[in-house]
Design a protein that fits this description.
Elements: H1 3-23, H2 27-51, H3 62-74, H4 77-101, H5 113-122, H6 128-140, H7 145-171, H8 177-220, H9 222-235, H10 240-251, H11 254-264, H12 277-293, H13 298-301, H14 304-330, H15 334-364
Helix pairs in contact: 1-2, 1-3, 1-4, 2-5, 4-6, 7-8, 7-12, 7-14, 7-15, 8-9, 8-11, 8-12, 9-10, 14-15
């Protein structure tokens, strides 16, 4: 990671932590986010001084501003998850740089999430319930709908683009391509929807059974569950006395204790189980279909080589947009991710087109 990129990363983290603090309703947690913003600003100023390129910090990047807009629409839990990934990437970059230079790795390079954890632990107003709330936010962002939307659209576009090009190669873009494209769209979308429905339904049934067992354990052995919860917090680095205090506080309310133990011990977020399997299936169908319809559209209005060329151009544009959207998660260059997606998609389509051409020639002969 270059020094300029390090500087921009710190500026972006400062900006996003500040936005988290502004929208956070819990004043104690908001205070932690403000402290993190100040820490990141200090890191950015140190990088700026080292670079000796001026005295004014650069503005937040387009990526950071886009994440802020997404937070306004979908909620800032997702932004928190991205920040955790940014912190890990900073940590990995520091460790990699030290390995290359032969410098000693002391352990202080570990990701800034530990700083966040330390601030949470030392903030007197952050109670056990506050901490549990933060943990649930951090864990829940991994399955964000935005990520699913991007990947679902990508699956639909790449798979149907390859199918359409294969049929176009065999038929020179004449009759049959449109029918095959629409059939591929429907078959793929229905398959994705059914798979999503089965996945969500099976997970819900499994987790509900595990949650019921945990509830019975709390009722029959509350002392043992309290000790177990304290051990979980101690394993996270929380001091023994504070861990026992937090566990005792949580166990005073049986319903809340069950919720926390389900999250901490089983790694289950009960809120995620409230989602409808049918709703997930419908979203999966729509997202796949949106991507899959792009390479098919030209064949509704024309055919032959003209339709093939337009389909390739439209699909390449769609692949670039998807690759660009993926940078929200990876932090890579928009151009790098966009063109990488285009190249891989075009290679897949070229292979199927060539296979279709060979089959078409063979059948004609």
């Amino acid at each position: 990671m270059s020094q300029n990129k390090n500087l921009q990363t710190e500026v972006d983290a400062c900006f996003l932590y500040k936005r988290l603090a502004e929208v956070e309703e819990d004043t104690a947690v908001a205070n932690v986010f403000r402290q993190m913003s100040d820490i990141e600003k200090g890191h950015a100023e140190a990088f700026l001084k080292k670079l000796n390129t001026g005295s004014v910090l650069p503005p937040p990047s387009l990526r950071a501003k886009t994440l802020d807009r997404i937070g306004k629409i979908f909620g800032y839990d997702y932004v928190l998850g991205v920040l955790m990934d940014i912190e890990k990437s900073i940590s990995n970059a520091v460790i990699h740089a030290k390995k290359q230079s032969g410098a000693i790795i002391t352990g202080s390079e570990t990701n800034h999430v530990k700083i966040l954890r330390s601030l949470l632990d030392n903030e007197s107003k952050v109670t056990g319930s506050n901490l549990a709330k933060f943990e649930s936010k951090h864990r829940s962002v991994g399955g964000n709908a935005l990520r699913a939307a991007v990947l679902g659209g990508n699956d639909g576009l790449v798979s149907n683009f390859s199918l359409v090009m294969g049929i176009a190669g065999a038929t020179s873009g004449q009759n049959g391509v449109l029918l095959a494209g629409v059939a591929g769209l429907l078959a793929g979308a229905l398959s994705m929807a059914l798979g999503e429905w089965i996945s969500v339904k099976s997970s819900q049934e499994l987790y509900e059974n595990q949650m019921q067992l945990e509830k019975e354990e709390i009722e029959t052995n509350p002392e043992g569950e309290e000790r177990e919860l304290a051990l979980i917090y101690m394993a996270k680095g929380i001091p023994v006395e504070q861990a026992h205090k937090m566990a005792s506080e949580i166990m005073q309310n049986t319903a809340h204790a069950h919720e926390v133990l389900v999250k901490e011990e089983l790694g289950i977020n009960p809120k995620e189980l409230k989602g409808s399997a049918m709703e997930a299936a419908v979203y999966s169908f729509i997202l796949f279909a949106i991507g899959a319809v792009i390479p098919v559209l030209p064949f509704f209005f024309t055919k032959g080589m003209t339709a093939i060329v337009i389909s390739v151009v439209c699909s390449a544009a769609g692949l670039f947009l998807i690759g660009s959207a993926i940078t929200l998660f990876t932090g890579k260059s928009v151009w790098y991710s966009g063109f990488r997606q285009v190249i891989f998609g075009l290679i897949a389509a070229a292979i199927t087109f060539g296979i279709g051409k060979l089959i078409g020639v063979s059948l004609a002969g």
